[in-house]
Structure formats: C-alpha cells, structure tokens
Amino acid sequence: MTTATGIFAEPAPKFSTESLHAVLGEHWALTDPVLKPLDSERDLNVLVDGRFVLKISNPAEQADVVDMETRALEHVHAADPELPVPETVATTAGEPVARPLDDAGRECLARLITLLPGSPLEGGPLDPDLAAQVGAVAARVSVALQGFFHPSAGRTLMWDIRRMPEVLAAAGIAAGRLGELAERVAPALAATATLPSGVQHADVTLTNVLASRASVTGVIDFGDMHHTAAVADLAVTLTSVLRLSGGDADRLWRLTDAVLRGYQRHRSLSPAEVAVLGELVIARLLTTLAVSATRRGPHADNHRYITQYDTNSEQALDLLSALSVPELAERLARLAGTRDLTAAISPDSLPARRAQAMGGKLAPLFYRRPLEIVRGEGPWLYARDGARYLDAYNNVAVIGHTHPAVTQAVSLQLAQLNTHSRYLHAGIVELSERILATMPAPLDTVLFTTSGTEANELAWRLATEYTGAGAAVIAEHAYHGASKWMADLSSNEWPAGYRPAHVATFEAPHGPAPELTETVAAERIRRADETLRAAGERPALVLADSQFTSEGILDVPGEFVAGLVSGAHTAGALYLADEVQSGYGRSGPQLWRFLLAGVTPDLVTLGKPMGAGYPIGAVVTRREIADALAGSYEYFSTFAATPAAAAAGHAVLDVLGLTDLPARAAATGTFLREGLRALAAEEPLLGEVRGTGLLAGVDVLGSGASTSREVTRALLSELVGQGVLAGSTGPRGDVLKVRPPLVWEDTHVSQFLERLRRALAELRA
Description:
Layout: H1 17-28, E1 35-38, E2 44-48, E3 52-56, H2 63-79, E4 88-89, E5 110-114, E6 119-120, H3 128-144, H4 164-171, H5 176-191, E7 197-200, E8 209-212, E9 215-219, E10 226-229, H6 230-242, H7 249-264, H8 271-295, H9 303-307, H10 310-321, H11 325-336, H12 350-357, E11 373-377, E12 380-383, E13 388-391, H13 404-416, H14 426-436, E14 445-449, H15 452-467, E15 471-475, H16 484-488, E16 503-506, H17 518-534, E17 539-545, H18 558-570, E18 574-578, H19 593-596, E19 603-606, E20 617-621, H20 623-630, H21 643-658, H22 661-682, E21 686-690, E22 696-700, H23 708-721, E23 724-725, E24 727-729, E25 735-738, H24 746-764
Parallel strand pairs: 13-23, 15-16, 15-17, 17-18, 18-19
Antiparallel strand pairs: 1-2, 2-3, 3-5, 4-5, 6-8, 7-10, 8-9, 11-12, 12-13, 14-20, 19-20, 21-22, 22-25, 24-25
Helix pairs in contact: 3-6, 3-7, 4-8, 5-8, 6-7, 6-8, 8-10, 8-11, 13-21, 14-21, 15-20, 17-18, 22-24, 23-24
C-alpha cells in the first residue's frame, strides 16, 4: 500500500535528456523525439513530439497503483466515450507500462499517453461559464468511474481529505486557528463514511483540467485516485476553483454557483452530501496548506510548485470559515437546490405568518386544527410532527403521492429541457396522441393548459367562438374553476343573491334513477335555454362535472347525460364533460366517466390528476371547433405543453395502463361503498351512499341541535384525530367526500371504515 512516507518522501525520477530518448526509443520505437518538461509534484512528466506525454512515476510508486490508473482510463473510455481523457499507448512489447531505470539506478514505471488539446486552466482567467464546465467534467468523471473497482483504491494518500487531521498534525500546523478549523470539520469528515462512495479521480483541479478557446477539452492525471465519497471528489474540484476568488466573497459565491450548476447537470447531489460539502472544502484547503508545509523544506528545488496555492488557499479559507457550519451548509443548499423548505418556518409561527402573507380568509385551510403536511408516499400523508394520515381526499396524486415514475420522468426532463410549446417536441405530440386514443373518434384535437380551471376557460372561449353565443347552462351547484369567468360558471361559488345574467342553471340529477331519463334532462336544458333567451342571451355551452361531484357525488344514469347532450345541441350549444375530478381512471378502465354514459361530448376538460402533482390540464375537442377560434385568435400559454408537463403526463398514463390500476381501483371502490352502506345501516349519522369507481359520497345527517353541515365538519375533525383526511361536498356541505388516490387497496378501505366507525363513536360520546 502506498503511504505518505513513500511517494511523497522519495525524490522524483531523475532522467537526462539522453536517458529519456533511450527509454522512448527502446519501448515505443520513437526516434529523436522533441521533449519538453512538464510540471509535476512527485513524478516526471515530459511532452513528447507535441503528441504524447511520457509519465514516469515516482520510484516509490507501486505497480498495482499504476495498473489501477491504466485500467481506470479504459473504464472511463468505455463508460463515457465522449469524455476527453488520455489513452495509453502500448509499448512495442504490447504492454501498457515499461520499467526503465532512472539515472540513479532506481526502477520506475513509465507510460506513454496521448496528448489532449488545450492548456491547464490553472493560472488563467476563469469566468462562471468555464467554472460550470469544470463542475460538469468533474461530475462526468465521477459518474464514468461508477462500477470501477481495483484493490489499490484503498491506498493511503496525503491528499485524501479524510486524512486531513493527521496530515495537519504531521506538518506541525495543527495548533491555533487551523487546529480549531480541523475540529470544526471533523463531523463532516466522519459523515463521508455513509455517503455515496467509489473510486474517484480525486484531483479534477484546474491543474488537471485542460481548456481551449473558453471550452474544456480534457481531464488528465489520474495519479491521486482512491476510494472516497463522491462529494469529497467534488470538494477537491470546488476548492481548486474557489482559490481563484482572490478574497472576493461575491466572486466566491458566483463561482460556487457555477461549479454546482455544471456538476448537477450530470450528477445530482443529495441533501446529505450538500450539508457537508462546505466543510469538506475547508478540509481540502487545510490539507493544501499542510502538504505545502510538509514538502516545501525537503523539496526546496520544487518550492514554487509546492507553495503556489498557499496565499489563495488562505484567502478562501478566511471567507468560508467566517460562516458558521449551519450558515455555510444553508448557502450551499440554496445554490444546490437541496434546501429543506419544511424547516424554513417554525410550526408555532407558521399559521400566523401564512394568514399575514397569503390572503387570510380568502385562502382558508382545512380542518379545525390546520395540518402541516411535509411528506407523501402512496396513499399516505405525513405531518411535520410525524403523524401519518390515510389520504381519502386527494385525487391529484392519482397514482399515489410522490410516485417515483413521475418524479424521475419530470426530473430527467427538467434536467434536459423545459420550454414553451412554440417548438416541436415529440413527447408533447405523443402525449396528445395517447390521450386521443382513449377518446371517441370525433374528438381529434388536444389543447394543453396548466390546470382544470384554465382548461374550462379555454373550452368556454372555444364554445363562444364556435357558436357565436355568449351564455352558459350549468348545474345548480356546479364548480368549474377559480378564474373570474369560471367563478361565474360555478354556482357553488356564487355569493348570496348573485346570478350572472349570461348563466342559467338546471336541476342536478337527484332522485331515483328511473325518473332521470333522457327526456327529463333535455327538458331541464330547454327550460334553462328559455330563461336565457328571455333575457336576450343564447347558450354557447352546457357543461357538467361527469360525476356531479359538487352536487354531492351523484349516480347519474347514462340516459340523463344523453339528454344533457341532446338538449345542448337543440339549444345550439356545445356540451362539455368536465372530467377534472372524475376522469383519469377514477371511474374504471375506460378512464373517463362520460364513456360510461355512452355519450360523446363536444369538449372534454382534464386537469388535477393528469400530472400527478405536476401542473397540467387539457381540452379535448373536434378540429372544427378549434379552427373556429383559430380564425380570430392564436392560443398560447407559456407553461402549457412543456416537455416536463408531457413527461409527467406520460408517466401517469404509463402507470395507469401497465399496472391495470383503473380496473383495480373500480373494484376497490365497490368494496368501499359496500362497507359504507353496511356502516350506514347501523349508524344514525350516515345516510345514502353514492358513487362510481373509486369515489364515494355519503350523506351526513343532523343530530339534535346540530345541522348536517355542522355534524359533517365535526366528523372531518374527528377523522383527522383518527389519522384520516377526507373532505365534504354538496349544496349544504353535508356529504362526506371520499376520493382517495387510486392506489388504495382493500386493506386501506378496511382501515378507513374502522377509523370512520371510531370517529362516529367519538361524535356520539
């Protein structure tokens, strides 16, 4: 094993010009080559004919270490062929290494490697763009070395950051301020043992990074390779760059940002890695000063090379150590994007600060005691205090909270490109085609938005342009979005006494199914149309949530929906199926609730679950309707139809389709409603149970002096106490709304029913 008393103590190889010519002629058949000496700390490096570098290792260097370097270069070439690193030129005997004797009679290991273009960045100007390239190439080398193993990687080196305390002590400079800094970084050094590790280059510094015309052209010198944490390898690179800050704090942080930006384009850092990175840079700076102090005396002939970093290292050390450990870690976390936002505000002050900054009563929270939710996984949500809640409410997380497929798809796309839809992108087009493949044939056009509200608003524009009319017909307690236009088309949102003149309502399909015929529905639309025309208005659109969720989650017969469609067309209007809440497999394997009714709408709007947490929505319609709007306008929304949104959309469809989740969710929904009906049969506070697929609405009844709405609110709070998050809906807010992620299994249903039973018992106690 190579130690600090070996290669760092043994003098560098001694070869005269004649000896070098002899070595090159004997082992590589090069005659009369032109030679130029190159800088090196402990070896001998010579430029040969402007094409190669002859590397003669320190006589104390072991053959297995050189073998590791040679094999590592081969591995890197195979892993990342575009990464510019040297290639080894075989000897005339077909070997990668020759074993000449130097002028002092010491056997040395010699290699001839190809020369890469460019010059070392050390000593030259370094702007943020070039610093980012340095970070990028450091990451690429680290990633390319993944999977590489060699027994010699466990060697001991003075430059190993983890050995800083003993190197500092051996140099005799471990007292005073430097000793205090060594103690400061000790926990970070210890933490590297649990971080991602492997064989690392460990010396991707400005000395070993080549550049030409402001572009990195190569990485050389694998002589310091050893097994260590990947973040320690990054610390070496970052230290080398930050030494150029010249004591300027602003420049130091600009360069830090650049290196991290370039690095993370190829290798993402974990929060744990970023938490120790700053301390590892301090450790590397201390190591630099310690190695310099150790070697400058015994190697006075190489004094300039050995001490070249001392002044700049001390300047960078002053800037970084002026920050406390938490302050330094937070700055790096902000630049790396790993900051833990859940810890940004204390739990005690969070409610008041939210109310002060975010609209107060205009943006209310759920439940009597608001929850601070910090994490999600599958069907579960986790509060900051560690409490776990079964999610019976959120349909955005259609395939479960934080599904790795969505996380990975969006992250990879964001790392590659995310821009607006004025450019061609295959992912967006393919997502359109996949959505259309699930729709009836007349629907042939997809227009992307960022939300269900925006989708409904665009649908409204399409309808008014296509029909030339300006009024709408909605259900009596509908909700279709939060914008001004959609608030007017959301009777659920109207203040007392408010009714827009261009909006009429129809009675929602309450009551027994036999009474909800096509004729009944068409007649309700006719009466609404009549009301509008009496006011000088003409309907452009009839729209309804396919499950009538805001109306209390109604079991609407297909005949009734057919009557809404025919009634709309008779009135000269288009029919819109709002699938924002009931679509994306919630009603079963056909994906869309309107298909169960056997109708074909003129427009379909999608949202909420479409990106499983990533904002995306869409309008699906016929081309002739889209062309009507195109005759006068263009449609463009900056964040609609971005590649990242498409990545999320594809991931959701992939998981839904490949796991047969909609069919399983429909079966789970049946099991849920059966259990709810059994519970309601013995529970005086529960009434009728309704729903399709994995969706259920349960009427909650009044009790004594408490209204049904009051009982519902109390029940929701009791459910929170039982570890369940649910919601309410309906005209009076007295329908328990159970709309969980589709990943619920029967076991989750059983847990929900038992906790609901306990919550009801608490209410009666």
